[in-house]
Amino acid sequence: MEGRIAIIDADITTLDVDAIVNAANEALAPGGGVCGAIHRKAGPDLAVACAALGGCPTGESIITPGFNLPAPYVIHSVGPVWGGGESGEGAKLASCYRTALLLAAEKGLGSIAFPAISTGIYGFPSDRAALIAVRTVRETLPEVPGIARVVFCCFGGESRALHEAALAATANA
């Protein structure tokens, strides 16, 4: 399984994978952070495609073409807004990773890249989010054997270090 998971510090919009995951809002509208970067690079057709879908609930994922991105698909996962941890935020975040992987597998995709969902403006604590992300991917990978490569695409050294620590912590779990 270790060979299927990579952790990098890069711009997710430049990756050569089958799908990149967008840390989306429920309206699937262009926003800030990684969402804004993905929409800018994909071009205006992405916003049109997203608007036609009519939104997506928190914890769920939906797929669109990647348009001008190197990745042919964008999987939009709506992460939870951090409210202190007592409103099921962890389960909703785990669901983002799980539903994105299952959707990628359903489409026959072999590689997927995730940002650190909900850790920006949504305020989810980065260390908790990294552990949930890595644990959920590890738990879901046996169900999606066609996915050969999962990339945690971190934005900065701190995020990368947190994901690497989470990978090490879940190695024998």
From TrEMBL:
Against Pfam families, the record matches this protein to: Macro
Transmembrane feature ranges: none
Give the Gene Ontology MF terms in alphabetical order: O-acetyl-ADP-ribose deacetylase activity
Residue stretches making up the Macro domain:
1-171
NCBIfam families linked: PRK00431.1-6
PANTHER family in the cross-refs: GANGLIOSIDE INDUCED DIFFERENTIATION ASSOCIATED PROTEIN 2-RELATED, MACRO DOMAIN-CONTAINING PROTEIN
- Its protein name is Macro domain, possibly ADP-ribose binding module
Species in which this protein is naturally found: Methyloceanibacter caenitepidi
